[in-house]
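To: structure subgroup
Subject: Chain for Friday's discussion

All,

I'm putting the inputs and outputs inline so they're searchable in the archive.
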Amino acid sequence: MSKLRNKTKTIQEYQFREGARYSVDPQVVGEHLEEITNKHGGLNPTLVVREAERKSSPLHDCFTWDDTKAAEQYRLQEARKLIGSVMVVTQHVEEPIRAFHSVKVVTSSESDDDAPRTYVSLDVALSDEEYRLQLLQQAARELNSWRKKYGELKELYKFFSEAQRIIERYSA
């Protein structure tokens, strides 16, 4: 991490990724994460949590400090990770792929935003037209995130132009 020490500070404009739900100013968070990086020569989750423990920290409200609630949220995250870790081998693809996918179950009485999510098997997700569309939309969102993350790599420009067509076709 020593490579990051003593870097000159560049003024950045920070914002949260689409869908992020924090009640704090992303500019304040970004600048504070920069300060942690400069102070410690790098940034990692342990340093961030240690810094956020102080109630006066601008990062404090980004975390759940009630241990009972935090433990429940963590177990739910572990369950998501477990479900997402189960792979299936199919005849169509050489490598194992995810066996279960998260989809919205939309009923006529609910709006799309209020629809509960559930995990369905790959076979169900691919055979149901609505679930298949949701998977394609999710793939387009993830592809777009990946494109944003690596957009400055000129070696990938050709790939990004094709990716953009897919993103535009399936953006919800």
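Points worth raising on Friday:
Confidence is low (pLDDT under 50) at residues 1-6.
Helices lie at 26-40, 45-52, 67-85, 122-127, 129-150, 157-170.

D.
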